[in-house]
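ingest -> validate -> predict -> emit
validate: passed (alphabet ok, no gaps, 505 aa)
predict: started
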Amino acid sequence: MKEKTQLKKRIILNGSDLKLEDLAAIAAGAKITLVRSARKRVNNSRKIVESALKKDMAVYGVNTGFGYLANEKISSGERAKLQKNILRSHAAGWGDSLPVEIVRVAMVLRLNLFLKGFSGVRWELVEMLYTLISKDIYPVVPEYGSVGASGDLIPLAHIGLALIGEGKVLYRGKTISAKQAFKKAGLTPLVLAEKEGLGFVNGTDLMLSVGAIALIEGFRLVDAASKVAAMSFEALKARPSPLHPAIHRARTQLGQIEIARAIRSQLKSSYLYDSETAHPRLQDPYSLRCVPQVHGASLDALKDVRRIVERELAAITDNPIVLPREKKIVSGGNFHGQYLALYFDLACMAVAELGSISERRLELLLNPEKSGLSPFLAGKPGVESGMMALQYLAASLVNENKILSHPASTDSIPGNVGIEDHVSMGMTSARKFARIVKNTEAILACEFLASAQAIDLLRKRKERFRLGVGTRKTLGSLRRQVKPLGGDRELSGLVEKARQVLSKI
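emit:
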């Protein structure tokens, strides 16, 4: 289910071929190389823009205003100012800065888009963007402002400002002005030509970056959730019969089949399969019995999201688009983020369900009537509360996930005096998804701690108890970092340690 591949140390950009795993390497700081053949494509598309200007043709955003102002003709003397002004005027973001790794991924995605040769920008702009990435100069981009059409206008404008030596950037660990960073790095700001300001701000790169990185983590969580669920099977003496492969083949759902196989692999050689094992229930609650059905649905949903994301990685999403073969410049709407908005909303629900069912298994572990162990897995119930508060924490996060799972893509607030009369809210979908992933990791950490504690309490009873080959390894990875609860203590730090272990198993 999860392929453990080493991150690439170098990514070669050619205008295509980027996959989800490449984004993880880019976020981690992989070196970027441009293919030589891309320069010819970029230059050819630029020639078409320059040819249109010589003919004095009206080309949207090149020699006209933007949006509602598209009918305003711009004189040749003010066209460069027009491109600078769109970056300045649209750099209207607010809120905390997006993580630097997200900004880096977005910059690389925009660079890769330019290399396709459909944008009409000059090679000088490509070189400047490449230089900023290579020298680790990353614009400060506030998280709020994008409505997902015309793409991520506001956050991309904040990135674009850095090209012309304006705005704030993160350089050598400090937030300083782009002007200062350029001076320290020995760079000269770019002077924009026609089409280049507009060519920078139209596109889905920010929502794609935020959502795609969250998707990488989402797949990891599916794998971790199945491993933690297998530990809860062991701790609660659950019947393994609902994992029988024939049951899942009969359903024909691929994700369900894959999850059942993964949990069986974890439980291989477990005491649960011994005929002498006394299972306390003829049928276990759904949060145990239906793990393959629930986790499997989430897995399949995330695979659908991946399909859309990887199409978007290969997409032309700016406007207007230069068509080299036809030698035309055409306006369209590829910047609209509806695909990503809808599918990131689906991803929100998929990962939230992993957390929702995990909280229910946590409740079983802490409930003495279901676990057969001490209330809240405390050593001295009454005097000690044990892990009681972990369920409170998990419940609060499940509650937030449910709220965040409300779709953003079903909302649209028109802008630009009605020209942009339907927007995607895709950035909201992506940000919600990233938050749900983070919350769900903490929920799973709570179940992880409780299942490990329950297993240790069972061992103390000196019962015949043999863990599966996978669960034994998973438990060992936790116990190397977190010792069993020997009495009441602050649980917050333990949750964080368990979360860190989960991120690596």
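The longest strand covers residues 10-13.
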